[in-house]
Amino acid sequence: MSRYDAVVAAGMARLDEQVPGWEWRISLANLNVGSCSNCVVGQLSADYAAGLESLGVNTFVEAVSLGFALPPGDAHIVTYAGLTRAWKYAISDRLAAVASSAPQAERRGMGE
Questions:
Q1: 80 falls within a domain
Q2: How many domains in the chain?
Q3: Which of 43, 94, 32 shows the shortest CA–CA distance to 69?
Q4: How far is the C-alpha of 96 from the C-alpha of 71, rounded, in Å?
Q5: Is 107 contained in some domain?
Q6: Is residue 21 part of a domain?
Q7: What pLDDT, on a 0 to 100 scale, did the predictor assign at position 75?
């Protein structure tokens, strides 16, 4: 369990409300919370600030509480790596759960 799990879960819940199916649009290989263009919000929107606004995130404190940013004292490469890792695990777990719950033919791409 990561120190970021709660904020990532909150961010995922916000995304679920505002952007259904968002998890399928994220490139885990490119995901980097320390990059405005490769973070979760950046991958879903052409502009990080506009993406936050479209999610109803109005303050930096709220962005931190949703795992979309780190507090200024924590904002360095090591902690961004930890937050990125937490997002990757959470998204991977969700995608795996969806895949395992689909009928076998659908998982193979053969079902309708």
A1: yes
A2: 1
A3: 32
A4: 31
A5: no
A6: yes
A7: 61
Measured in degrees and rounded to the nearest 5, phi and psi for residue 78 equal -65, -45
User: What SS3 class is residue 92?
Assistant: helix
Q: Which own/partner pairs from 44-52 qualify as long-range (CB within 8 Å, at least 24 positions apart)?
A: 44/15, 44/19
Terminal-residue alpha carbon distance, the chain: 37
pLDDT in tens, the chain (112 residues): 778 999 999 999 999 999 999 999 999 999 999 999 999 999 999 899 999 999 999 999 999 999 999 888 766 666 889 999 999 999 999 999 888 886 654 544 434 4
| Interacting residues of 75 by C-beta distance below 8 A, sequence separation 6+ | 34, 69
Instruction: Tell me the residue range of the domain where 56 lies.
Output: 5-101
Q: What is the pLDDT of residue 36?
A: 93
How many Å separate Cα 11 from the centre of its chain?
Answer: 7
Identify whether the C-beta of residue 41 lies closer than 8 Å to the C-beta of residue 22.
no
Helical segments of 1-112, H only:
5-18, 40-44, 48-54, 60-65, 77-101, 104-107
User: Rounded CA gap, 79 and 86, in Å?
Assistant: 11
